[in-house]
Amino acid sequence: MRTRSSPDLARKLALMPEVELVGLSAAGDRDAYGELVRRHARFLRDLLRRMGADHALADDLAQDAFIQALHSLPTYRLEAPFPAWIRTVAARLYIRRRQKDARTVITAEPMGEDPGDIEAASSNDRLDLDAALKSLSPAERLCVTLCHGAGLRQDEISEALGVPLGTVKSHVTRGLKKLRRQLILEEPAREPHGKGGPQNG
């Protein structure tokens, strides 16, 4: 069997555009697929932990997602960028695991006001996102991360979880509202401009 693991190859793959890596991987190049895994494994594990998986489960599901994606690459037609596709694969694996373990019960609750998209928060807020997610209920956390982390549509989440669409919308809306409130509360006070303190009127 031919081995090509060398520093020169690693550097070449690290500089290669993702679409080329996907093409090589679909043709059976394991080194190219290893580079895809290297680029996205950490983010995928972080996403799964944000959904509610512990570290061990996140590692297992991320590995399973990459294995499943590898087997599916010959039929992958770049309908979505590889990062979005692998996130969807991992999210569906996590949903199936939660359903099997019956650890999450999602119930219908009244809709609240629409707080807008989580992406409207400033980039600095993202530093505190993991901590803020822990303030949500398991159902809110799952629905928010599936929608705004994994990129699933709310109707897809509804179908995957087997709950009404209105329930998913309610949890996403309420979860985003809580996140925004939590992130605002954690934002540090700004220092006055200049050494002389704040200026008057």
Structure overview:
- The chain is mainly α and 201 residues long.
- The protein has 2 domains: 9-102, RNA polymerase sigma factor, region 2, helix turn helix motif (Rna Polymerase Sigma Factor, Chain: A, Orthogonal Bundle), CATH 1.10.1740.10; 104-188, Winged helix-like DNA-binding domain superfamily/Winged helix DNA-binding domain (Arc Repressor Mutant, subunit A).
- The protein is built from 9 helices and no strands.
- Helix 2 crosses helix 3, helix 3 packs across helix 4 and helix 4 (55-72) crosses helix 5 (82-101).
- It is elongated and about 50 Å long.
- It starts with 6 loop residues before the first helix and ends in a 15-residue tail after the last helix.
- 30% of the residues are buried.
Q: Descriptors for this entry?
A:
201 residues; mainly alpha; Rna Polymerase Sigma Factor, Chain: A; Arc Repressor Mutant, subunit A; 2 domains; elongated; disordered C terminus
Helix content: 55-70%
Please outline the major beta sheet: none
Name the beta content range. under 5%
Distance between the termini: 76 Å
Which outline best applies? Answer: elongated
- Global structural class: mainly alpha
Oligomer: single chain
Mean pLDDT: 79
Element string (H = helix, E = strand):
HHHHHHHHH
Whole-number count of domains: 2
Uncertain segments: 107-127, 189-201
CATH topology of the largest domain, by name, is Rna Polymerase Sigma Factor, Chain: A
Number of distinct helices: 9
Second rung of CATH, namely the architecture of the largest domain: Orthogonal Bundle
CATH class of the largest domain: Mainly Alpha
Number of strands: 0
Radius of gyration: 21 Å
What's the CATH H-level superfamily name of the largest domain? RNA polymerase sigma factor, region 2, helix turn helix motif
